[in-house]
């Protein structure tokens, strides 16, 4: 299969790309920074999804929108407008089988930087619009909303014992997901799933469900 993934140089996007490559798929990665993946089936295009030139890529079967920034002053531009720009270019064509959006648990809870939470909430709403339109091609569109994930983006809190202890108290399962686990979910929703569409899947170790009963 031919897979196009944004934000493949690190974190979740890199893990997703490596998952598909391990199964002999062809992957095209778009990222603002140079590649960190070396594989003969991997093509890296260094560009900004919001303002850079988007390459001509024919025959995309799976599109995964992962590129994102946090508390950058560009969250709406990159996370939402860039995602829309990429999707409108590559999704609506006869080869497409699935479109996936990496959103965030903050799209539901709002518990993040304001523009980041708004950008990810917009991604989930846009995903539902895409699902309505991409169904004409027999394709699915869904989003994944991770809670905490152990990536370099979150080093600041992962390396602070006090903050980390507070974070662990906010989940039912006292841990965060690994990027490789999110990649497994991404693979299932795009390459295996054929019947679920227009849905947002929350992977947050029970943070949203955390509740204390006081009697």
Distinctive features:
alpha/beta, 7-stranded parallel sheet, two-stranded parallel ribbon, 7 helices, 9 strands, 19% strand, globular
Give a description of the structure.
By secondary structure, this protein is an alpha/beta fold. The protein has a single domain, classed as Rossmann fold (3-Layer(aba) Sandwich). The protein is built from 7 helices and 9 strands; from the N terminus they run βαβββαβααββααβαβ. The chain has helices spanning 11-22, 75-90, 106-109, 114-134, 155-158, 161-168, 179-192, and strands at residues 2-6, 26-31, 42-46, 62-65, 98-102, 140-146, 149-150, 177-178, 200-203. Strands 3-2-1-4-5-6-9 form a 7-stranded parallel sheet, with helices on both faces. β1 (2-6), α1 (11-22) and β2 form a beta-alpha-beta unit. α1 (11-22) crosses α7 (179-192) and α2 (75-90) packs parallel to α4. The longest helix is centred in the middle third of the chain and has 21 residues, at 114-134. It is globular. It starts with a strand and ends in a 12-residue tail after the last strand.
